[in-house]
Design a protein that fits this description.
CATH class of one domain: Mainly Beta
CATH superfamily of one domain: Glucose Permease (Domain IIA)
Largest sheet: 10 strands, antiparallel
Shape: elongated
CATH architecture of one domain: Distorted Sandwich
Number of helices: 10
Length: 414
């Protein structure tokens, strides 16, 4: 009995050590734990009731929308408020505090940023563009012209300005038109514009392509290969019919004299004496005038000027910038042979004859002399202006010896 009793007690002790839960269930719970549990149950119930109330609450009626509201929104631009909406209204006080804490720019800093000029944006293609979102445009690359076109002359045009507009040499215009246009451009006149430098020939008598090419010093094949000529399949011996307009790429004809015409009659070997006329037919021409010769010494035609452009083959004089009305004086003693409007781009012009020498004063705003008048060096003859082919007030001054343009800076310093 004693051994059985000991084995039974030993088994019971083993169970007590490995499974203590029966003993714990028999212990009563403390009061504070019971209170905590009760409070948790009450809170869960309150949360459940609040959730149910939100779900069953009726939705508020939507604000009526006018029938034309959709159409108005689609057709009328969005208008921003004149003043900013307070942050508290948009996002609540908490958001306002966050925004207020963020770094901001002062009105002066904003104005400085807006005042900065637009800067060019370089791209990998090699082009540089200035982005202007207020005036968007499609960038179209330059394409070479292939066709012969016609141009209507407008007031102020010269052979040089028209050639520059179309990217041509002025000689190409002269060779593509009757030579009378060189000194006789008039508004409304139609002139032929070649596609590139060369000559447009209107065939007047039947002739071969080889003959035409020889006259312009080019290979006949360049005429045949120019697509707009319509000569595909032709040979140098092909005959061009009268009335055809043929473009000769790179063709060159006679040397063109761009200077206004000077006509002399009589006089001695030095160029003095007899009569002289400058560009007969122009509005300002005085017709033939006595040319007794120059007198006095050279003097600058202008004082208080800025030297802006020198002598060149395409610019046979010097440009002296000065305010409008600045007095222009005779550079040498002589007679007035031109005073008035000139069609070569000089605008209002005065020309003085000094024997074999002539001096030219262009782009004037005022003229103070009359035809045939004899003026001494330093005499005020007009005022600086910007008439004719001029980009701003200045005096265009030329000197010619025996009617050949000469660099004025070789005669006097400027």
């Amino acid at each position: 009995m004693s051994e059985d009793f000991d084995r039974q007690n030993t088994h019971t002790d083993h169970l007590a050590d490995t499974n203590p839960m029966p003993a714990l269930r028999e212990l009563p719970l403390p009061l504070w734990r019971r209170l905590v549990g009760l409070i948790s149950l009450l809170a869960a119930g309150a949360l459940t009731v609040a959730s149910a109330a939100i779900l069953i609450m009726p939705a508020s009626a939507p604000t009526p929308v006018p029938a034309n509201a959709t159409q108005a929104a689609a057709t009328e631009p969005t208008t921003l408020p004149a003043t900013p909406i307070p942050v508290e209204v948009m996002a609540g006080a908490a958001t306002a505090e966050i925004v207020a804490a963020a770094p901001t720019l002062s009105p002066e800093q904003i104005a400085a940023l807006l005042a900065q000029p637009v800067t060019p944006v370089a791209v990998e293609s090699g082009f540089t563009f200035i982005r202007d979102t207020s005036d968007p445009f499609t960038i179209i690359p330059d394409r070479p012209r292939r066709e012969i076109t016609e141009y209507a002359v407008v007031a102020g045009d010269t052979m040089f300005t028209i050639a520059e507009r179309f990217g041509l040499k002025p000689e190409s215009l002269a060779w593509s038109n009757p030579r009378s246009i060189i000194g006789g451009l008039r508004p409304g006149m139609s002139i032929t514009i070649p596609p590139t430098d060369g000559a447009v020939e209107q065939i007047s008598n039947d002739r071969t392509i080889a003959d035409l090419a020889e006259g312009y010093s080019v290979d006949p094949l360049v005429i045949i290969d120019w697509e707009s000529n319509g000569l595909q399949g032709a040979t140098p011996d092909t005959v061009l019919l009268s009335g055809m307009n043929i473009f000769v790429p790179g063709g060159q004809a006679e040397q063109i004299n761009w200077a206004p015409r000077v006509e002399r009659s009589g006089g001695d070997a030095s160029g003095a004496g007899g009569t002289i006329a400058f560009e007969l037919g122009d509005p300002g021409s005085c017709g033939p005038q006595p040319n007794p010769g120059g007198f006095g010494g050279w003097t600058r035609p202008l004082s208080g000027y800025s030297f802006t452009r020198g002598f060149a083959s395409w610019h046979p004089g010097v440009d002296l910038a000065a305010p409008v009305g600045t007095p222009v004086t005779a550079a040498l003693g002589g007679n007035v042979i031109f005073r008035g409007w000139n069609s070569y781009g000089y605008g209002y012009l005065i020309v003085l004859a000094h024997g074999p020498i002539t001096t030219v004063y262009g782009h004037l705003s005022e003229i103070y002399v009359s035809c045939g008048q004899s003026v001494a060096p330093g005499t005020v003859i007009g005022g600086v202006g910007s008439t004719g082919n001029s980009s701003g007030p200045h005096l265009h001054f030329e000197v010619r010896f025996n009617d050949i343009e000469t660099d004025p800076t070789t005669i006097m310093p400027f």
